[in-house]
């Protein structure tokens, strides 16, 4: 089997490559920068704006896994260019190459597109996939965490200091990146009746998700802080924090006004009617286990002191 992959250099994409290697699946992965050689991977120079570049990985591939996407920006228009126009270009390349199977990684934020430009762009991209005529499956992951992640790392680092500011009260689901990678590979050749033209919201198997307080406490345990001050911040204060982060870190800011838009929403728990059929995939890594694993990796890499 040969897979065409976008986003292979990113957090989720790297986990997909590792899982593909374990399974002996060959991958053609799009990249904007030169990459080190990797077993089973053919790096293809280019990006989602180049039709010529896209034609290379999808040519005679068995399936496309579209992971690439812009998750953070101060420019709302950038989300459309990357997430909508990029998806449209990849669909066109897949159709031209007559590659039918198309697995698209969206976001749970697409469920509430009015809250953020990011969520709106993912929702619009979903519509393109649904109208593509391909044998598609859409995956809306909740919060994805694990080794190498920089977004959740901010919470681990803050918790290690004993203080973890939280959004307004609410709950969310999470999924370990290795479980998500397994799912994406499992979906490629799963029984068509179970997965084709379906939209799934996977998670770690915790019914009802995690309240923000519960997740903070679990992260505290993972970093060795059983006593943790974790206050809920109002949306107004989060927006102020986003402005400060923008001033201090510019384009590298982890908290942006757009992210505040969906972070302040109270319910990011996956829906049971959009669960992946158990015959196709089930999570293997519980939240407690995965958070401890992530914290251990951060320590090994010197990210956590």
Search tags:
305 residues, alpha/beta, Rossmann fold, 3-stranded mixed beta sheet, 11 helices
For the largest sheet, list the strands in their spatial order: 3-2-1-4-5-6-10
Give the strand content: 5-15%
CATH architecture level-2 label of the domain at 2-145 and 175-204 and 271-284: 3-Layer(aba) Sandwich
Largest sheet: 7 strands, parallel
**CATH superfamily (homologous) name of the domain at 2-145 and 175-204 and 271-284:** NAD(P)-binding Rossmann-like Domain
Q: Kindly state the mean pLDDT as a whole number?
A: 96
**Strand runs, count:** 12
CATH fold type of the domain at 2-145 and 175-204 and 271-284: Rossmann fold
Oligomer: single chain
- CA distance, first residue to last residue: 42 Å
Low-confidence runs:
none
CATH class placement of the domain at 2-145 and 175-204 and 271-284: Alpha Beta
Order of helices and strands, N to C?
A: EHEEHEHEHEEHEEHHEEHHHEH
Q: What shape does the CA trace take?
A: globular
Describe the model.
The chain is built from eleven helices and twelve strands. It is of the alpha/beta class and 305 residues long. The protein has a domain at 2-145 and 175-204 and 271-284: NAD(P)-binding Rossmann-like Domain (Rossmann fold, 3-Layer(aba) Sandwich), CATH 3.40.50.720. It is globular, with a radius of gyration of 19 Å. The N and C termini lie far apart (42 Å).
